[in-house]
Amino acid sequence: MYEGAVQDLIDELGRLPGVGPKSAQRIAFHLLAAESADVERLASTLVRVKNEVKFCSVCGNVAQADVCRICSDARRDPSVICVVEEPKDVVAVERTREFRGRYHVLGGAISPIDGVGPDDLRIRELLARLRDGTVTELILATDPNLEGEATATYLARLVGPLGIAVTRLASGLPVGGDLEYADEVTLGRAFSGRRRIDAMS
Amino acid sequence: MYVRALDVTDFRSWSAAELPLVPGPCVLVGANGQGKTNLVEALGYVATLSSHRVATDAPLIRAGAERAVVRCAVVSEDRELRIELEITAGRSNRARLNGAPVPRPREILGALRVVQFAPEDLAIVRGDPGERRRFLDELVVARSPRMAGVRSDLDRILRQRAALLKSAGPARRNAGSLPTLDVWDAQLAATGAALTVARLAALRTLRPHAGAAYAALAPTGGELALGYSSSLSAALPELAAPDADPDEAALESALLAELGRVRTQELDRGVNLVGPQRDDLELSLRGLPLRGYASHGEGWSAALALRLATFELLRDEHPSGSDPVLVLDDVFAELDSARRDHLALVASKAEQAVVTAAVAADVPEQLQGAQYEIAGGTVRRVR
Ligand SMILES: Nc1ncnc2c1ncn2[C@@H]1O[C@H](COP(=O)(O)OP(=O)(O)O)[C@@H](O)[C@H]1O
Ligand SMILES: [Mg+2]
Ligand SMILES: [Zn+2]
Asked: What is the pLDDT of residue A201?
């Protein structure tokens, strides 16, 4: 245990994902030794990110304005929506340059252990986007793990009756993993080889 | 195959140990508590990514240390493979093959194959069904390392499903959670069917080996029978047949139907009621289940027969006929002379047999090969 502010900083850092007690301590002492200007820039970026960054009212991706750049880009195909779990997955798919449609960010995956059910995801918003008939294909790009699969199956069953083509990324993605860890080539290939899923299966 | 060297750092009682091994019998001799089992446990961990003594990784790490490292050089068909495993409690482990990191530790499964017999194995005969499922699943994974993924998927699906059943319970079958339950049912049915089919296939192959091994250990003791009892037996009576070989798709639909049938009950009780996690490997002798009926000697014979059968099966099935490493941990002192002799005979023919004993005199004549003294935190080859 350290005194006062140092320990507070270690505790705060230790709450971040992927940061264990050892790393928290290392980062804290790195910051202590850093130039004041550098630390101030970091602090103000943290505050700005919370104040300025919004979530797109259409797709749920992070955005600078009410609607994100992708949703307001007229060149992007409005008839295809790629459904992902997190904003970082949008970045991963964008990197492949295989996809010219729009996105929908669910904000997670169904996981009863974590208390996350369909109502906790942006599924109602997705259904609203499908209502006017513009969208003809839904690509389910949830993570290739059990929770991602469960979410995809749930969505396929929900959307199937609407007469919209539902596809799932082709296999070849590292099973049990995270979409963001798939390299561009593999993810790109999974995109072009996506297969239609039967709503009843 | 054989292990040419085993090195551990901060594993169990060992801050550091280097154990150079040779093909044939390798006998580790040392008084109780000197760390012999700890060393063979490290071998078993590399082979199965689990310990036969504990369910979690924490006890494997030396008290006061942060992580344990196990390194092992395995020679198989004249090629040497270096396996390195870093065990950190509460976090995922890391593994390297020939120095290169692998994406997930599971990928080292199959690189070292070990069949271990230890006093704890009596629990296969006398313990809960969970012990026998573990035995069977270990065999399933040894035959097909890919099945480790199916097993861990099944565990996770069951945990997700249990959480959902519990949370849906208070809401009294609240309609909103039912469509998600359907989704988990489908996953449980598919994964459960895959595991059940693999278990039944492993059992079909094991049966003749187990019968022969038991007959050799206890020539007048009757026939050791192996059966599979499934939570689906009522829905799919053919599963009860000794040579059941059901179609995976049929099993999947049966599981799904059964899940539908017990749904109300599952929601009321908030627990998983159907699936391979409730099945059992039935061991019997002269029509009586071993559990609860077997004598002490019969129990030992059956447990040993199951391990020796596993050894023979894995040797038989391996494309190049390379043997798994046979590990015999502190068992000779417990066996009567007939069983001792038979075990020694099998072990003396193994490509490598790692044997531990408190005193050298416990180890049969045929296995007096290389000998190591384990004492005071050091390993010394003495013969
Ligand atoms: N995580 C651990 N840290 C330190 N010591 C341990 C740990 N786990 C087990 N031990 C010690 O290892 C010893 C048992 O070693 P073991 O290999 O079972 O002995 P044996 O030579 O009789 O087979 C015990 O003294 C136990 O306290
Ligand atoms: Mg021991
Ligand atoms: Zn948007």
From this structure: 42
pTM for this prediction: 0.87
B50 touches A at CB < 8 Å: no
Give domain status of residue A66, yes or no: no
Residues of A with CB under 8 A from a CB of B: 20, 110-113, 115, 117-119, 146-147, 149-150, 153-154, 157-158, 174-177
Q: What pLDDT sits at residue B104? A: 86
Number of other CB atoms surrounding residue B336 within 10 Å: 11
pLDDT at residue number B21: 97
What domain range is A188 assigned to?
71-196
Query: Which of residues 107 through 166 in chain B touch A, CB cutoff 8 A?
Result: 149, 153, 156-157, 159-161, 163-164
Q: What is the pLDDT of residues A126-155, one digit of tens each?
A: 999 999 999 999 999 999 899 999 999 999
Structural domain contains residue B106: yes
Judge if A149 and A88 occupy the same domain: yes
pLDDT tens digits for A78-133?
999 999 999 999 999 999 888 999 999 999 999 999 999 999 999 999 999 999 99
Q: Do B149 and A176 touch (CB under 8 A)?
A: yes
pLDDT attached to residue A173: 60
Q: Say if residue A123 is in the same domain as residue A177.
A: yes
For the CA of B62, the closest atom of ligand 1 is: 3
Q: Is 0.85 exceeded by the ipTM?
A: no
* One domain for residues A11 and A102: no
> Do A77 and A160 sit in the same domain of this protein?
yes
Kindly compute the dihedral angle of the four CA atoms of residues A83, A84, A90, A96, in this order, to the nearest 10 degrees: -80
What's B182's domain CATH number? 1.20.1050.90
CB contact (8 A) between residue A157 and residue B182? yes
Asked if pLDDT for residue B52 goes beyond 80, the answer is yes
Residue-number span of the structural domain to which B237 is assigned? 125-299
Give the separation between CA A103 and CA A76, rounded to whole angstroms. Answer: 10
* Residue B304 resides in a domain: no
What is the domain count for chain B? Answer: 2
Choose the mutation target among A119, A140, A142, A146 for the interface with B, i.e. most B CBs under 10 Å: A146
- My answer on whether B129 and B223 are in the same domain is yes
Does the residue A201 lie in any domain?
no
B270 in A contact zone (CB under 8 Å): no
DSSP state of B312: H
- The answer to whether residue A14 sits within a structural domain is yes
Question: Dihedral of the CA atoms B219, B221, B223, B227 (nearest 10)?
Answer: -130
Report the residue of B88, B157, B180, B185 to disrupt the A interface, i.e. the one with the largest count of A CBs within 10 Å: B180
Q: Where are the beta strands (DSSP E) in chain B?
A: 2-11, 14-20, 24-29, 67-76, 79-88, 94-97, 100-101, 114-117, 224-229, 280-285, 288-289, 325-329, 352-357, 370-375, 378-381
